[in-house]
Write a structure and sequence with these properties.
By secondary structure, the protein is an all-alpha fold. The protein has helices spanning 12-24, 28-45, 50-60, 63-74, 79-90, 93-104, 115-120, 123-132, 141-166, 172-179, 181-193, 197-215, 221-247. The longest helix has 27 residues, at 221-247.
């Protein structure tokens, strides 16, 4: 039996199932199931099959982007127009991937080892991985993240199945409310995990700036909100650090 000072190394499968178990204990389980119940109702309204919905969930793995995909194709948009709209919607995940993958990279991590975690990276996975990965040995973080992502995706697929067969009994208002669960849960989790002044300032500025840009009917309002709020918060953080250094 190993002592606490020298714990037994975490095996590959143990790390994967640890990530899987962490996903099922997360509050995002309820968020994902609820969101994809609403998404399944939307897909059935447009005449898409359950198999199509589940395949798009695995391949796209982004609830808001799937809403665009379903509504665009269901509304008669061309494949090129739909691809561009979905691609632009998914661009928001690039900063998440860039921020998260260095937390997984170890001295022996190959580039291809990061492809699956990069695909799994979504709002739920990003928030929970940042919270949980520091306690995981560096050499097992990729496997742990794969388990975490697989657990979240399986919950989404379960929501697809439930929602597809319950569509007839779901009021339209409830369906719309379920689609709103993901952005709200991401906002609350981000606020909970904000530690530094820059994090809190960027979040507060974003909440102020976004409604103003939406009211002004400026295109790409979400992107501009992130650029403006993030830049101001970073500038304040650098200025604060500079002032502290000058006082010493």
């Amino acid at each position: 039996m190993s002592s606490d000072a020298n714990p037994e190394p975490l095996s590959v499968w143990s790390a994967f199932f640890a990530g899987l178990g962490a996903s099922y204990r997360s509050v995002f389980v309820f968020v994902l199931v609820g969101t994809y119940v609403g998404l399944a109702a939307l897909a059935q309204d447009y005449g898409f099959s359950l198999a199509w919905l589940m395949a798009s969930t695995v391949l796209v793995w982004a609830g808001p982007s799937q809403v665009i995909l379903i509504s665009a194709l269901g509304g008669g948009a061309t494949l090129a127009e739909t691809a561009i709209a979905v691609g632009l919607s998914c661009v928001r995940f690039l900063p998440m991937v860039v921020a998260l993958l260095p937390q997984m990279r170890g001295p022996h991590t190959r580039a291809r080892d990061l492809l699956l975690p990069a695909h799994f990276t979504a709002a739920s996975m990003w928030v929970e991985a940042f919270r949980l990965l520091p306690a995981v040995p560096p050499e097992r973080r990729v496997v742990f993240s794969n388990g975490l992502g697989a657990g979240f995706m399986s919950c989404a697929l379960l929501g697809c199945i439930i929602g597809y067969f319950l569509t007839a009994s779901l009021p339209p208002l409830l369906t719309a409310a379920m689609l709103f669960l993901t952005p709200m849960s991401f906002l609350i989790s981000t606020a909970r995990n904000a530690r530094s002044l820059a994090d809190r300032l960027a979040l507060a500025l974003g909440l102020i700036i976004l409604p103003l840009l939406v009211y002004a009917d400026i295109g790409l309002d979400l992107m501009w909100t992130g650029i403006i709020a993030g830049t101001v918060a970073y500038a304040v953080h650098r200025l604060r650090g500079h002032l502290r250094g000058a006082r010493r």
